[in-house]
Amino acid sequence: MTEKVVVIVGAGPGVSGSLARIYAQEGCAVGLIGIDPVPLTDLGDELTAMGVDVGHVVADVTDAAAAASAVSQLGERFGRVDVLHFNPSAFREKDPLQLSAEELLADVALGAGALLTVVQAARPFLRDGARVTVTGSMAADKPWNKAASLGVQKAAVRNLVQSLDATLRPDGIRAVSVTVRGTLAADGPFTPDRVAQALRAAAAQDEDSWRSEIPYAG
C-alpha cells in the first residue's frame, strides 16, 4: 500500500467533510469516525465514488472504549495512520450562571478529552512523519459568554495539542491546531472548504519551522 491514510474523528458535513474530500482528491485512503450514521454513510459513499478506499465507524467519542475501538479498527484495516484529524466540539448555549459543572465537564470531555483517547489509540499506527491536526477556534481567546463551555473546550484542546506535539516530536510525529478566527459561512474566507484548506496546509508545514498552533484569519 502506497497511499497515505487519513482518519477523521468527528466526520460529517462541514469542515470535516471538506477536509476528507481534499485528502481523497490527493488519493489518500480515508477513515471516518462519527456519531451520526446518516451523514457518515453519505460522506463515505461520496468518497468511495471518488475512487479511494474508505472505512467508517459509528462511535460516540466521549465513550473512551468505543472511541479507542473505532480508531483501532481503522488502524488495523489500513495498517497505519498518516494524518489523524480531530474535529469534535460541543455547542451549548448557556452562560456561566446557567451552565452546570457537570455540563461543562461533559462538553470538555467531547471537545478536548476525546483527543487524548483517539491519539492514544492511534499511536501504534502513527509512524515517523505522521501528523495530528485539530480544528481550533477564536473562542479559545475570545469566548462568547452565552456559550461558555465552547471557549473552555477550545482553550483546553489548543493547550493539549502543544503538549502532544512536544511528546510526539522525538518520534517524528507532529501535532497542530488551527485557530479559526472567524465564523463559518457559506461564502467568503470562512467557508468549510477554505478552513479545510488551512488545516491541510498546517499538516504540510516544514518540520524545521513547525508551529503547534496556527491562526487562520481568512
TrEMBL record:
UniProt cross-references to Pfam families, sorted A to Z: adh_short (PF00106)
InterPro entries: NAD(P)-bd_dom_sf, SDR_fam
Domain of life assignment: Bacteria
SUPFAM superfamilies according to UniProt: NAD(P)-binding Rossmann-fold domains
Keywords: Oxidoreductase
GO molecular function: oxidoreductase activity
Family listed: Belongs to the short-chain dehydrogenases/reductases (SDR) family.
UniProt protein name: SDR family oxidoreductase
The species this protein was found in: Solicola gregarius
